[in-house]
Known about the structure:
The chain is α/β, with parallel strands linked by helices. It is built from twelve helices and 13 strands. The chain has helices at 3-23, 65-80, 98-107, 139-146, 149-157, 201-210, 222-228, 238-243, 269-274, 277-311, 322-335, 339-352; strands at residues 42-44, 47-49, 52-57, 85-90, 112-116, 164-171, 175-179, 194-197, 213-216, 233-236, 252-259, 262-268, 315-318. Strands 4-3-5-12-6 form a five-stranded mixed sheet, sandwiched between helices. Strand 1 (42-44) and strand 2 (47-49) form a beta hairpin. The N and C termini lie far apart (101 Å).
Amino acid sequence: xxxxxxxxxxxxxxxxxxxxxxxxxxxxxxxxxxxxxxxxxxxxxxxxxxxxxxxxxxxxxxxxxxxxxxxxxxxxxxxxxxxxxxxxxxxxxxxxxxxxxxxxxxxxxxxxxxxxxxxxxxxxxxxxxxxxxxxxxxxxxxxxxxxxxxxxxxxxxxxxxxxxxxxxxxxxxxxxxxxxxxxxxxxxxxxxxxxxxxxxxxxxxxxxxxxxxxxxxxxxxxxxxxxxxxxxxxxxxxxxxxxxxxxxxxxxxxxxxxxxxxxxxxxxxxxxxxxxxxxxxxxxxxxxxxxxxxxxxxxxxxxxxxxxxxxxxxxxxxxxxxxxxxxxxxxxxxxxxxxxxxxxxxxxxxxxx
Length: 353
């Protein structure tokens, strides 16, 4: 037998032996291979479920009530969908400042982000209604409005063709001014003070009407900017004031109560619209529960934050807000320029009565 025929016989025998071994019931079956890049599959009964990771960008620490609420949301969503989704919340701007994370959601680079409502004005100016000073009379008033889809449903989906939609809103606390050098009692006390505000024309204009100079800046840069004198202070709620250690470098916290803005949870449009209807329904049900949990945690965490801030050297002072309210009134008429915004504004006011 020549060399070529000998190798052919060996090959045929080898294939025959391999076939016999693979058909033998005594050996262990090899697991099915997972497609490259896919997460390990969970299973509901006999049907495999491919896990979809939902990354959430967040600019505050793990101690924040919104972080805790989103972790709870992720656990419940995974449980109720048989492990179809895994929510990963990235705190402390690990995925970037809020403005940049909106763009990441739009492109589908990440799936979700929690962002200040004022930033969404850049995509639909009608969002300005929720970001105007002294718009809400109480937290209950705010939460009754911003998660009522009869009032906000069309607004929240208005950016769908821009790659993202809002699916709900968290309570973002009441924002107050804090400074390096002195407490604030009147607009005159803010004269010449550079106060960090969010990247929104409305916020810049508001601070100007309150007597100061609004300076937009990413949250991660604020501590150093105040410490170095680039900024004279900031404006935010007690949790962020204490959590980001701003009490160490701007200890005068004054209750101007100028803003009660919602923080919006946004999601990539194609991702949400591509979910099965039952998963969309479950997502929204669990998100409403997460919002309720966050509100319950808020007061507890504010009390702890104030104690921490006082230990760090902070002082808190009340303010007669009537003069500030009067100063910013023109901003409402200046900013509500469309029929849709006016309609939403009237519904907000009606909800307070």
